[in-house]
Design a protein that fits this description.
Largest sheet: 5 strands, parallel
Shape: elongated
Low-confidence stretches: none
Number of helices: 7
Distance between the termini: 49 Å
Strand content: 15-25%
Helix content: 25-40%
Order of helices and strands: EHEHEHEHEHEHEHEEE
Number of strands: 10
Structural class: alpha/beta
Radius of gyration: 19 Å
Strand order of the largest sheet: 3-2-4-1-5
Amino acid sequence: MSSRLIGVGVGPGDPELVTVKGVNALRAADVVVVPVMAAPDGKDGGEPGRAEATVLHYVPGEKVVRVVFALNERTDRARREAAWDVAGERVAGLLRAHGRVAFATIGDPNVYSTFTYLAQTVAAAVPGTVVETVPGITAMQDLAARSGAVLTEGTEPLTLVPVTAGAAVLKDALNGPGTVVAYKFGRQAAEVAEALRESGRLADAVWGSALGLPEESIRAAAELTEGPLPYLSTLIAPARRGGGRGGKL
């Protein structure tokens, strides 16, 4: 039988937001891999990640394997790629030994996820591997639900921007139509606030971090501070709306 690598989206952090299909996939796997950030020496930093904390609500700890990924390495490309190769071979080894491996990722495995890179590496290392994904609830969906922000109406477009690509990309999106969602903007909070002001989108925008967790924070974007926010902060700048109910159907 073919080896199977299954990317399972476990949502933004609230264990109640893992789908039934996701829970079943985690429990059916022989091993569940969870990504952890590397310490300065390149080894396991010790702190459980958001994906791991969620997974442990549904599977026993002895079934979970922590694999170090260069999630926090953004300056040294060679070091980052070397770390990815090591992580990929570790997962490939698990797949050879067990046959059915699930990889838990926060959010959705097909939206800015570490899983896409991992799947490419493992598929090359273990020929014939079947790669599957189980969708997960995204941070923008959770933030919309918790804040009351409406993501789209009628024919409005929705633009998702990782601010790690630069504040200029966000500015272009904010000057366009529809709702704009920004991911990973915590370290550039001041630039994001300025972009919202310049585009006239500050008043209706909302940001959140640690959604569904005890340290959850959801605030109006007008309260964005000059200092950095958590890296995984999410922003929703709703579309400019008017015209009454049903006007865009």
